[in-house]
Amino acid sequence: FTRPDLHAGWRSFCDTFGDQCIVIQGCPPVAFCQGFPVVHMLIEPNGDVTPVGSYDQLFHRTVANPLSFYVAGASFPQASVPRAMLLEQATALARVLFRRGVIGYFSVDFVYFWEESLFQNRLWGVDIKFGLMNAVANLRMVTAVFGGQLRDGQHVITVKRDDGSEEERMRFHVSTNLFVHPPLSSLNTTTLFRLCRNKGFAINVQENTGIAFNFVDNLSSGCLAIICVHKSVREAVNMLYACLCYLRTQLYNSRTAQSTTSTQLTSLIDVLRNVQLPGEEKELPST
């Protein structure tokens, strides 16, 4: 329903429904949504609840179908909802889950939207996933690669100046989900890193910014995810967008790539080009 571009027609949709089953969830109109935050929590065996991390899902609303949205990745730290409000609801849910015998990691998908009838913003929980999510692993990987620590839902890096004093730097992440692009299988990791490094898409140790790649074992599967760390979310999105466009250009240079091109990379680039970041001005539709 929200991604009509994935199906050739109603018959294709029905075939997918019959083969794989589909979960249909209610959601406020996307035009009124202010953000799609996700919170990861840990329930200890003794009932203690610890927030592990939170982020905003990046989504894209198309002009052709304003009711559709495509989730392509995540931005950190979460900025669409006051953190205290988000943790309050996630913690209350964790208490209920513990009373029902649940322990371990879980995540809650929220939607933050404008309620026209009440003339105020509302926060709804729309999904629960159990287990350690990839986004949490990404947060740990980023702190290991770029340094620093997660503090109060933010990535803080402490750097020593030349005079011996310390400086605290805030860093922001934007990551893509794993996407499939068959031409990637023709590359090895050395070639990929060389191409990106020559264009400036690498880790800047002095500034604690740059791009890291996440893939399954090697590139033979054609699967890749990218994490970009920068001084603001917008700068991270812009660098990630430029990197993906550059990779697409390089991969299109071969005839084989042109004949086996996947639409996932193109869709991802389109999402990043039009992505609406939390906190950026957005006009509400007239009613």
How would you characterize the overall build of this protein?
With 287 residues, this protein is α+β, with helices and mostly antiparallel strands. Helices cover 30% and strands 31% of the residues. The chain has seven helices and twelve strands. It has helices at 10-20, 83-99, 134-146, 189-198, 233-251, 255-259, 263-274, and strands at residues 33-35, 37-43, 49-60, 70-76, 104-115, 120-130, 149-151, 154-160, 166-176, 179-180, 210-214, 223-230. Strands 1, 2, 3, 4, 5, 6, 7, 8, 9, 10, 11 and 12 form a twelve-stranded antiparallel sheet that branches. Helix 5 (233-251) runs antiparallel to helix 7. It is globular, with a radius of gyration of 20 Å. Mean pLDDT is 79; it is low at 254-262 and 282-287.
Task: Indicate the low-confidence ranges by residue numbers.
Answer: 254-262, 282-287
On the 0 to 100 scale, the average pLDDT is: 79
Give a count of the beta strands, DSSP E runs of length 2 or more: 12
Helix percentage: 25-40%
Q: Nearest-angstrom radius of gyration?
A: 20 Å
> What is the H-and-E element order?
HEEEEHEEHEEEEHEEHHH
